[in-house]
């Protein structure tokens, strides 16, 4: 049985889906106060520019949390992108039409989630967090319904506790300024080219389309498409994970059981952490 350290209610290890922007950096800082070691997972889908920008907040995180407590991994995921995002592109376009413009980022995020699950299982990390925020819920991957359902049907399936610690935060850059974690002020106002995160050629049109057409104007289509798209991709994600561990020892089931054992005493909700 794992004994919890009162100083670190999230235990020894946690990972963060980390772009280097203010949302993921603030989430990393908050999780780093609750877990003894954090790993920043930055994924390279093969079509983004300036991914080295993601390193710029890492030194500040190490300064605040401790140099030996923060690690960053930049991980290529192009094979997953080819299968999950682009593998059914003709079918996806016929089904979702121009709304696929917004769903591209969801497909990319699901590819990242697939690699994150593999990484956490291989490294015995029972906790993962992201910088999702409600203010950006016009994009499918930050819808509250998607975040909650994905937590239940995907992360917990593999024994991983998932948190979105800043979901209610509207001004992550201002919060980072207060604790002197920002590289420079007003980072939230940057668009297309960013100082602390990569630039994605798909992300810019997807964000614009989501804000103008896929928000309130789309009505229930946004929720329906997000649900159907993520459910369509989930069996493929699970197949990729199964393939990865097919001939390995320990096997997938054993690794899941190990993570579930470590995660079982941990809080299930972010708001419960301080009471753990």
What does this molecule look like?
The protein is an alpha/beta fold and 276 residues long. It has one domain: HUPs (Rossmann fold). The chain has ten helices and five strands, in the order βαβαβαααβαβαααα. The chain has a five-stranded parallel sheet with strand order 3-2-1-4-5, with helices on both faces. The longest helix is centred in the middle third of the chain and has 24 residues. It is globular.
Count of distinct strands: 5
CA radius of gyration is 18 Å
The side-by-side strand order for the widest beta sheet comes to 3-2-1-4-5
Total DSSP helices: 10
By CATH reckoning, the class would read: Alpha Beta
| Major β-sheet annotation | 5 strands, parallel
Question: What attributes characterize this protein structure?
Answer:
globular, alpha/beta, single chain, five-stranded parallel beta sheet, 276 residues, Rossmann fold, 10 helices, 5 strands
List the helices and strands and how they pair.
Elements: E1 13-17, H1 22-32, E2 37-44, H2 58-65, E3 70-76, H3 78-84, H4 89-96, H5 100-123, E4 127-129, H6 144-155, E5 161-163, H7 172-178, H8 203-212, H9 221-244, H10 252-263
Parallel strand pairs: 1-2, 1-4, 2-3, 4-5
Helix pairs in contact: 1-2, 1-7, 5-8, 5-9, 6-9
């Amino acid at each position: 049985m794992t004994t919890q350290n009162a100083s670190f209610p999230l235990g020894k290890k946690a990972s963060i889906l980390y772009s280097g922007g203010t949302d993921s950096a603030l989430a990393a800082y908050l999780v780093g106060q609750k877990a003894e070691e954090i790993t920043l997972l930055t994924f390279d889908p093969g079509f983004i520019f300036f991914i080295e920008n993601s390193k710029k907040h890492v030194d500040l995180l190490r300064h605040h949390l401790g140099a030996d407590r923060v690690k960053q991994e930049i991980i290529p995921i192009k094979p997953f992108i080819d299968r999950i995002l682009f593998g059914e592109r003709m079918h996806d376009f016929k089904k979702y039409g121009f709304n696929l413009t917004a769903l591209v980022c969801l497909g990319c995020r699901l590819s990242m989630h697939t690699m994150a699950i593999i990484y956490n299982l291989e490294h015995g990390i029972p906790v993962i967090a992201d910088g999702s925020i409600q203010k950006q819920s016009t994009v499918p991957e930050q819808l509250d319904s998607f975040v909650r359902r994905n937590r239940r049907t995907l992360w917990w399936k593999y024994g991983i506790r998932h948190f979105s610690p800043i979901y209610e935060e509207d001004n992550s850059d201002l919060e980072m300024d207060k604790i002197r974690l920002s590289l420079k002020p007003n980072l939230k106002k940057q668009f297309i080219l960013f100082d602390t995160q990569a630039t994605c050629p798909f992300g810019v049109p997807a964000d614009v389309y989501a804000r103008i057409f896929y928000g309130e104007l789309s009505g229930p289509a946004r929720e329906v498409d997000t649900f159907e798209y993520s459910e369509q991709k989930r069996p493929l994600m699970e197949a990729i994970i199964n393939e990865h561990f097919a001939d390995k020892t320990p096997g997938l089931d054993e690794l899941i059981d190990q993570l579930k054992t470590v995660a079982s005493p941990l809080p299930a909700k972010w708001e419960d952490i301080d009471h753990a």
